Amino acid sequence: MQALFIWQAQGGGGLSLLIMFLPMIALIYFMLVLPQQRRQKKWQAMLDQLKPGDKVTTSGGLRGTILALKDDALQLRVPPDNLRVEVTKASVMQVTTADEEPKTK
């Protein structure tokens, strides 16, 4: 109890607390925020490169071939009955090009 009073009497307690929390804040930024921003940029670049003929998988599990692109949507041809489905671009999670090499976010 007496040590607590001495610490408060010395002053600068706020500064030492700030010095203690800065490395933790930096660690959280570099471990959580920065990788998420990189993934988001990579996923956005993938969406910008979509073109008719690409095979995609949506977040709902639909697999199909892109027939047409709109501003924020795309039309898919879904096998086996060649149904036409319109989904948002944001729902695309994976693109498979003609090389059959999956590109994920």
**Rg value:** 25 Å
| Strand and helix order | HHEEEEEE
Shape: rod-shaped
Distance between the termini: 54 Å
The average pLDDT is: 85
Largest sheet: 6 strands, antiparallel
Structure description:
This protein is an alpha+beta fold. The chain has 2 domains: 2-46; 51-104, SH3 type barrels (Roll), CATH 2.30.30. The chain contains 2 helices and 6 strands, in the order H-H-E-E-E-E-E-E. A 6-stranded antiparallel beta sheet has the order 4-3-2-1-5-6, with helices on one face. A hairpin with a 4-residue loop joins strand 1 and strand 2. The chain is rod-shaped. The termini are far apart. The model has no long low-confidence stretch (mean pLDDT 85).
Main attributes?
alpha+beta, 105 residues, single chain, SH3 type barrels, 6-stranded antiparallel beta sheet, rod-shaped
